[in-house]
Design brief:
With 340 residues, this protein is α/β, with parallel strands linked by helices. The protein has a single domain, classed as TIM Barrel. Helices cover 36% and strands 18% of the residues. It has an eight-stranded parallel beta barrel, surrounded by six helices. A three-stranded antiparallel sheet has the order 7-11-10, covered by helices on one side. It has a two-stranded parallel ribbon with strand order 9-12. The relative contact order is 0.14. This is Alkane 1-monooxygenase.
């Protein structure tokens, strides 16, 4: 059994070829797709966060709105770029959104990917300390955020407050119990996966990892998952960790499916550079008739190792079509693989 959700980047463009032509369209359609996915029996609605781009950017209003419109589905991110975040403000926003959703948030955070502008986090007021990298800064923000989610008081109360205070040091409010255990880190390397396990966060792995060998993508990803679980066990955490992987999966059922994605049936892994000097291996897309998809997906070692599968959706094709893709996976692929 696996949890199956969708992952949307929330792209929008004013082109007449797009069903998502404005930021408002992207946000409102994201909520509608979360509602549709819940009705179809999916388990999660996850959203990417990119700054300075025609994509989803500010996650907490979206998560709160989707939480108010749904009742069961998990609501998450994959991922929030912690280089840009004030961890105190984020803890308040996350607590509020989680309470609105009834404790269903699954927040993926990370150092983030290359962005649309140079050092965009500097425009948000964050600069790595001397001797630090931007990745160090992101991890520092994350560690503060995780501590705050524990709910311990840390601020000295005013002796003459406007409103009465509870006894002791004060914490940020609203506090949502249990949210700390529902934080995930997006890792793309074995050392980062190990750090994630040691820190006690769940693991998210995308459709690319940094190339650490010449092995196929799914094998390298599965090795990182194994390293994460070993580090988790060595750290002595008592709960069972979760692991998600993302995949582009398109069952070819209708003529529209074949027109859109029939060409992806020949997709293969490929190696490339997402930043200078940093080679990554990009996972293939899966597009085929359902019976063939079942055979191909059964050989994906990283999917086998994960408990959660996030389906990347082409959101600019509209809510109805993306709901069709999700339903096709749930109905025609998942049962044959034992995911349902």
């Amino acid at each position: 059994m696996k949890k199956i959700g969708f992952l949307s980047f929330g792209h929008w463009t004013p082109s007449s070829q797009s069903q998502t032509r404005s930021a408002g369209d992207a946000l409102l359609q994201s909520i509608d797709l979360a509602v549709a996915a819940e009705e179809l029996g999916a388990d999660g609605a996850y959203f990417r966060v990119h700054h300075f781009a025609r994509q989803l950017a500010s996650p907490f209003p979206l998560l709160a709105a989707a939480g108010a419109r749904t009742s069961r589905i998990e609501l998450g991110t994959a991922v929030i770029d912690m280089r840009y975040e004030n961890p105190l403000y984020m803890a308040e926003d996350a607590g509020a959104a989680d309470l609105i959703a009834g404790g269903r948030l699954q927040l993926g955070i990370s150092r983030g990917s290359p962005e649309q502008v140079i050092d965009g986090y500097r425009h948000f007021g964050y600069v790595p300390a001397e001797g630090q990298t931007d990745a160090d800064m992101a991890r520092g923000h994350a560690e503060v955020f995780l501590d705050l989610l524990g709910g311990e008081g840390f601020a000295q109360p005013n002796p003459r407050p406007m409103f009465p205070n509870p006894p002791g040091l004060l914490r940020l409010e609203p506090h949502s119990p249990g949210l700390r255990e529902r934080i995930w880190w997006g890792a793309a390397t074995t050392p980062t996966a190990q750090w994630t396990g040691k820190t006690g966060m769940n693991l998210q792995s995308s459709t690319l990892v940094m190339a650490e060998s010449d092995k196929p993508f799914h094998i390298q990803q599965a090795e990182q998952i194994a390293a994460f679980r070993a580090a988790w066990a060595e750290a002595g955490h008592t709960r069972t960790p979760r692991v998600s992987v993302s995949r582009s999966i398109f069952p070819l059922i209708t003529d529209m499916d074949r027109a859109y994605f029939g060409g992806d049936a020949r997709s293969q892994d490929h190696f490339g550079y997402i930043e200078p000097g940093k080679q990554a291996v990009f996972g293939r897309s899966y597009a085929a008739e359902p019976d063939q998809l079942v055979k191909e997906l059964a050989e994906d070692e990283a999917i086998k190792a994960a408990d959660t599968l996030l389906l990347t959706v082409p959101n600019q094709l509209g809510v109805a079509y993306n709901a069709h893709v999700i339903e096709a996976v749930l109905k025609h692929v998942a049962p044959a693989l034992g995911w349902r």
